[in-house]
């Protein structure tokens, strides 16, 4: 679910874009001999992860993410686009108590934090609706990088039994797919867009909704 912080960020981006639109439209910025565009987007991403089915387990699978991108328009229908995305974290915590060898219960604490980012390269296909609005879709290769930090603590409250306190970190990477659909509005060389994305990894699939701006040189 999109929280109030994400909504405030979206509104801030939209306000800034709207305030800059007249400036960019009036500015005498020379066109590049090689046309290209750059942009950024912010939003909320969520992991395709099972819901919590244990009272002892808490899961936070959505949060803030952002993307940066640049593209080369081949024509008004197709473009080649590259981008970077720093996705939200997946956090899982398990806290349990069970009888031990003393009058105190054994306490178990286990946590896992997964952090993902990656680079994409692919194509963007646009379908103009009017002179200012267009639907579009993207398909890309997504080179993802994942870091997972895990911690396990067990307190037995028994001098004869050693407590457990373990930490482990490892990383993984690979190349999978990235897909997006969206709608954008354009005035002169400035565009505002909203889109839905899917980032695929071997570990989890990550969905995102973001609002952003781009400028064509």
TrEMBL record:
Does this UniProt record's set of keywords contain Ribonucleoprotein?
no
Know the name of this protein?
Outer membrane protein OmpA-like transmembrane domain-containing protein
TM ranges: none
A Pfam family of this chain: OmpA_membrane
Keyword GTP-binding part of the UniProt annotation: no
Membership in a protein family: Belongs to the outer membrane OOP (TC 1.B.6) superfamily. OmpA family.
Gene3D superfamilies attached here?
2.40.160.20
Q: One GO term of the cellular component aspect?
A: pore complex
Q: Which residues form a coiled coil?
A: none
Any one Gene Ontology molecular-function term assigned to this protein's record: porin activity
Give the Outer membrane protein OmpA-like transmembrane domain ranges.
36-151
Its domain of life reads Bacteria
Q: Which UniProt keywords apply?
A: Ion transport, Porin, Transmembrane, Transport
């Amino acid at each position: 679910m999109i929280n109030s912080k994400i909504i405030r960020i979206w509104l801030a981006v939209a306000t800034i874009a709207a305030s800059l639109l007249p400036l960019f439209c009036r500015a005498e910025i020379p066109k590049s001999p090689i046309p290209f565009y750059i942009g950024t987007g912010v939003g909320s991403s969520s992991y395709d992860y099972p819901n919590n089915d244990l009272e002892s387990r808490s899961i936070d699978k959505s949060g803030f993410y952002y993307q940066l991108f640049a593209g080369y328009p081949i024509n008004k229908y197709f473009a080649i686009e590259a981008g970077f995305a720093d996705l939200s974290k997946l956090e899982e915590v398990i806290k349990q108590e069970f009888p031990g060898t003393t009058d105190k219960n054994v306490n178990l604490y286990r946590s896992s934090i997964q952090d993902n980012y990656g680079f994409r390269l692919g194509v963007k296909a646009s379908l103009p609706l009017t002179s200012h609005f267009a639907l579009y879709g993207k398909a890309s290769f997504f080179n993802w990088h994942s870091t997972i930090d895990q911690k396990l603590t067990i307190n037995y409250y028994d001098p004869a039994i050693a407590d457990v306190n373990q930490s482990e970190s490892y990383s993984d990477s690979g190349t999978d797919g990235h897909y997006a659909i969206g709608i954008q509005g354009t005035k002169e060389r400035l565009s505002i867009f909203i889109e839905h994305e899917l980032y695929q990894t071997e570990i989890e699939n990550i969905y995102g909704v973001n609002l952003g701006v781009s400028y064509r040189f």
